[in-house]
UniProtKB/TrEMBL annotation:
This is Thymidylate kinase. InterPro entries: P-loop_NTPase. It comes from the Bacteria.
């Protein structure tokens, strides 16, 4: 929805060729291996993102480095990561809601719950605390429809749109978007 509203290209941060390995890796238990995999996908996507930005095309992604790092660190990853300065710098929106609503939304999802989804539920406070180290626009989605959340985001920071951008709706390809973690997720747009 944000990509369409901003007339931006939507870039998957787990690129399509990564999807079969992602499904296999998510069945494993090594958090560092999982973190490295997601970082690899993000660095691959960052090249595509930079290509679009260099061409003057705005970009929307559903997940970026902040989500990967905070989630995996909260799950116990010990890898020290220093992000390179050349990475596109996003405007990040951290979508949150109160816990009762979050639990209702989780129960209503049509998505298999993985081992990682269950684990993240045990460390939601650590994830929230870790997000504090990243600059983000916090958007409370409690009691708001997706259209209302979109309006809040659009009112937070409006930038020009590119007339030739690909605004394919989020979810148009069922295997492109990464799983939504079992906590309030951020949306970012470089």
């Amino acid at each position: 929805m944000l990509a369409a509203a901003r007339q931006a290209v939507l870039v998957a941060t787990v690129p399509l060729p990564y999807q079969p390995l992602r499904q296999a890796l998510d069945k494993r238990t090594n958090v560092e291996a999982r973190m490295c995999f997601y970082l690899s996908g993000l660095f691959t996507a960052a090249e595509e993102i930079q290509h679009h930005l260099d061409a003057g095309v705005p970009v929307v992604v559903e997940s970026y480095f902040a989500r990967c790092l905070t989630t995996h660190r909260a799950l116990g990853a010990q890898l020290g990561i220093t992000l390179p300065s050349w990475l596109p710098t996003p405007a990040t929106y951290h979508l949150v809601c109160d816990d009762d609503e979050r639990q209702r939304r989780l129960a209503g999802r049509n998505k298999p719950v993985s081992r990682w989804d269950s684990l993240i539920e045990t460390v939601t406070d650590r994830v929230t605390d870790a997000y504090a180290s990243f600059p983000m626009h916090r958007v409370d989605t409690t009691g708001r429809s997706p259209d209302e959340v979109l309006r809040v985001i659009m009112d937070t920071e409006t930038q020009g749109a590119h007339p030739h951008a690909d605004s394919e709706p989020v979810g148009a390809h069922p295997h492109v978007l990464p799983a939504v973690p079992r906590h309030a997720a951020g949306t970012c747009r470089p």
